[in-house]
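Posting for a labmate who doesn't have an account.
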Amino acid sequence: MKEEQVQAGAGALVAPALCFRGVTFGYTDDAPAVLSDIDLAVRPGEVVALVGGNGSGKSTLARLANGLLTPVRGEVSVGGLSTSDHAHRWEIHAQVGLLFQDPEDQIVGATVEDDVAFGLENVGVRREDMLGRVARVLSVVGLDGEEATEPHLLSGGQKQRLALAGVLVLEPSVLVLDEPTSMLDPAGRTEVMRAARALASTGVVVVMITQHMEETLTADRLIALRAGRIAWAGPPRDFFVSGAYEAFPLGRPPAMELWHELASRADVAGVVLASGELTAVVSEDDVVAALAAGKTVAADFSPSAGGGGAGAGTVGDGGPAVRLEGVRMTYNRGTPFARQALHEVTIDIAAGAVTAVVGATASGKSSLLQVMAGVMRPTEGRVTGADGARIRAGSVGMALQRPEVQLYCGTVWDDVAVAPRLRGLSGEALRARVEWALDVVGLAPDEFGPRGPYSLSVGEQRRAALAGVLSLDPAILVLDEPGSGLDPTARRRLMEYLVTWARGGVAPAAPLGVRTLVFTSHDLDEVADYADRVVVLHQGRVEAHAPAEEVLGDVALLERVGLRATLAARVAGRLGSTGPRRPATPARLAEWLAASFRHRESPGAENESL
């Protein structure tokens, strides 16, 4: 195959819209190369999923694609124009739309409408055309009605939508998206994936960096980076079916994970799971098709004891760690731009429990956590600790939705050491605490401790910031989307450590007694794995606060507030689960399936109800 051409369709050859030829790049002359010998050609209309662990070079590749960075060796070309030729710089920038991993890096306008229009103003689009294009793209990303809103008042997910709108409105021929769905709720993620496919159908190249393995299945091709090199390339399904994913810290799609878990249960596997089918099940549709072959019958779900997620049965019985009474939170109070984020919130956060706060984008999750941690004072209402007094400084550790903004020291080690130093630790005790915190988040102390925080990838920065919060070893830990930006293996490892910490199984210093963990997540499967209790927010109001299994099994509630039920609940529903609740975890789904199979095989099953 010639360098200048790529295969398209039935043998036709077309010029690539984006091409890397022998590209090597390093940020400094004396540092190891971040990318080495990259050869990649992408044809018009192709969707490419780019994956890899944190620090593998994904974001650097994205910046090379539109000329923000230029190769040390090799060449990057867009539509035949070299990014190293400064004469073509602006033309290339116009052709390649780049969405940064951190949306706030590219938000510049005073209002939502101004921000989206900024790029059009710079390329001289007429005002009449500009207004129409801005309105259309705001509708696509779900921000219509927010035209006059100041960007700093948006939630993290809304800021990500705004940054995407600013890229889409320029109508680029190549679209490079660096984790475009990391802060979005499931509905927003679906919208982005649908928009990407629609753009590709018009000939636009879409290169999408993602940590969500199920999103890769919608791409035409998957490229996996390891240590700055392309280590695998091919159809996404082949990556998982062949087992190639096992060589990367990525895990497998949730549907494949569910299938393997079901296969491990003798009461299910013996009925419907054929060994030859096991590795071919990758998507939700695959799971449903395979289970439907077992002729599962519709049945009500009535869970027996046990079988829940990691937090099942441990709901905290030591009273409230934090109590919120009549809490209201209003931004820009007394101005025409006033916005109420929380409405009459009254809840107790159980001491000793792992509590997840869930809700659609802009439901008030971040505001609730910041009020709970004492970062912001509520406009009205009270927030108190277990003793009825105000939360004491140092008793609550909090990581913001973008924890990297909490980094400010010259080295990672010094940044993580700030909190324990303030607590009086020094010498060997300080060193042990810092190394423990870095180990928890998966950053080797010897390797990452001496480095400057801003020499790290965004995912690594977020882990370093979390280590700085953990080093305090607080009685209450409040984390806003702690896994955002982490590769799947790092995310799973972090959550397992955090839950172990909350259970008292990890104590770098003298035991503090009861520990409480509160976190937000858009991933209800993650919530099912780790949470004891769930708080559901909708438009700033508490819609539910109950044990995790009770909330996650209530599919009608989740749909009403704009959330997507867990994979297990969705599969059960498609197989005919009836009644007000559905199995929300793989273990509960297996329990329901086994009961359904027994029901199917019993005499007169068609007339019975489970």
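Reply:
Got it, the structure tokens are right above this. Residues 62 and 284 are 30 Å apart (CA to CA).
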